[in-house]
Every structure is written in structure tokens, then in C-alpha cells.
Amino acid sequence: MPEWGPLGSVRGALSNERPYRDWQVAGFNNHGTETDMVLRNSGTGALELYDINNNSLTAAFSLGAVGLDWQVVGFGNFSSVPGEGDMMMRNTGTGAFLIYNISNNQITSTFPMGAAGLNWQVAGFGPMNGAGTSDMVLRDGNTGAFEAYDIANNQLTATASLGQVGLDWIVAGFAPFSSMGSTNVAPDSTSQLVQAMAGFGGGGGAADSPSTVPLGAETLSQQPLVTIPQHL
Hints:
Order of helices and strands: HEEEEEEEEEEEEEEH
Distance between the termini: 5 Å
């Protein structure tokens, strides 16, 4: 494991030295008090969590390995435990989703979420229902339709169609544009946001009933984490 110093010097080592070239950024895990970085080995599927505090890497923890047919699609508080940051993975062959609860820099449990057709792609995560939870938005790559999936206590609690927008519009991110505590789809600018959102609602080309496979509709075989002594 490298000796920790300023984040910039470690980042340079990760990109320039041969032992680190297989490690790629999987995402950033915000768990209330700080935001940490998760890297993944593109050859072995191993996951490594890096604590970041005061702009420095302070510690590293192995999270084990998952088969490369499982990809990290996002992080959020899916368990509804205050201050916890969890990870969502998806199987590239089946479309299955799996939640990994992370606490004290360790995987503590996993929960299958069901599967959606591979034409439905993850657009992002946020408190879509206004309740402070981390919910998921999928988009149909064929039609542009959006579907929101409310998640609480590691379970899918509700789904809602958000209508559709032409495929020439891509999601740039999610943020609370309309009111305190809510999160909305954000195309590239304010003016583009108005044009894109014009497609939502009755009569505007919105999809009344996207043909999505409900998550949680079937029992899935999990790909458990296997602890390995793999550290940088």
C-alpha cells in the first residue's frame, strides 16, 4: 500500500505507475460526514475504498471482489440508515440490480432488487420522492421514457412514469431545482431544461405506460463479495 500524502501525488501514482493502471474510479460514496472514493480493478473485479479527509487520503480498505459481469452504477443511502452510503451494482447480462450496504468501510449485507430490461439504463440517483431517500431513475434507450424507482430500507417501494424526452436530449445530472428537498432531471442549461420538460405531461409526447420490468418482480441469484487480500 502506498504511503499516503497529498491527494494529487497519490492520483499521479495511480495513473502513472504500472501496478495502479488497472484501478479505475468506480464512484464517490457520500455517507453524511465525508465523501470517499471507490476504485475497481478492471482485471480482477476487486473493489477498494479510500477514505478522504481534509483533502488527503487517510486510509484504504478492501471491499472484496465481484465478477466483472457486475458493474457499479451508483452510490446512495439505500438502507435508510442515517449517514450510511451504499453501492448499487447491475449485471450486464441479465439487467439484475443488487444493493451492497456499506458501513464502517465494510460491506455489511446485500439485497437483490430484481431486474429490468437492458434497454432501461440508469440515468441517476437522488431523492425523487422528496423524502430524503436515494431513489433511482432509469431511461429507456429506445424511446427516451423515464421511470422513477423509490427505494427505502433496501427495498423497492414504488415506481412512477416520468414521461419521455427525445433521445437527442441526454441527462446532465440531478439537482433540487424546483423546491427544497426534491430532485429533478437537468439537461444542459436552464433554457434547455424548459424545452426538455415540455415533453412531460398529458398530450406532450409523454409515455403513459413504459413497458418496464418491475424491479423486485423475481428472485435473483446474488453474486456475493469474496474477501481477498488485494490492496494497492
